[in-house]
Amino acid sequence: MNSVICLLLTFCACAVGAIFGDGNPKNGIEDQRQLAPAEILQSVGTIYCDGALRGTATHVSLSSIAPSSRSSIILTAAHVIYHKTTGILFETCVYRPQGKRLSSIDFLKISPHDFKPQSKNKIQQASQDIIFVTLQKKLRGSGLILQEVEDTDNQLLLIGYNQNQDQISISRDCGQFTSESYETDLLLLHNCDAGRGASGGPILDARSGSVIAVHGGTFLINSSENNPFGAMQGAIADPEVLINQGRKIDSDVIAQLKRFIAYPSKNSQN
């Protein structure tokens, strides 16, 4: 079978993510996303770059990593700060806590990363799709805790911007998958519903409430579908054909955060 492997990343308003269902288009799309609860929403926001919404981000708790830090740091997917066609870094980016338009905070520094916007190796690209950003102003609240989790049988939660409802939503009752097609220890494959603007949103362990991955996009293997984007709406999750993915929080990510905090001027890029 001559299959083409595509990585469909929710870069901006023109990109599409997978909303899963029963595979029957006649009964509509089973989009179960709802408004995120206040206790989580206070630690999540949206990213705007060069005048448009580009993705979602998480306010990171530094209490166990750098308790004396006076900075506020957010976590997101690296691709949201790059132009999807040219691969050029956007000139101006801001973070909007809880997605509030009148609360924009400028970026101060971006952590070093290996993300390559125009890489043809899509699995490797997704594995490097994660950054930290120091903000110009201090955020309220303590943020969400980052947690290393290899594999989990617990339910997952995905928090991300929902373009259909123009709000930050929560996707519940989803879980982790394994795949032979996308075999890597760095990515968490999941069936949490995600749409435009959800890239960079936190994937939470439902039991602990900690961030265990950052949503990056959707993997699709397509051999016959003329409209792969349409096929992603209401389809059955299949880790060998169609599945959402996120970069896991692991020891390397934690180490990257610690270096960024300890040496912000040295370990940053503009």
UniProtKB/TrEMBL annotation:
Query: Which superkingdom heads the taxonomic lineage of this protein's source?
Result: Bacteria
Q: Which UniProt keywords apply?
A: Signal
Pfam family name, one: Trypsin_2
Q: Which SUPFAM superfamilies match?
A: Trypsin-like serine proteases (SSF50494)
Q: Which InterPro entries match?
A: Peptidase_S1_PA, Peptidase_S1_PA_chymotrypsin
Signal sequence range: 1-17
Q: Can you say what this protein is called?
A: Serine protease
> Whose protein is this, by species?
SAR92 clade bacterium
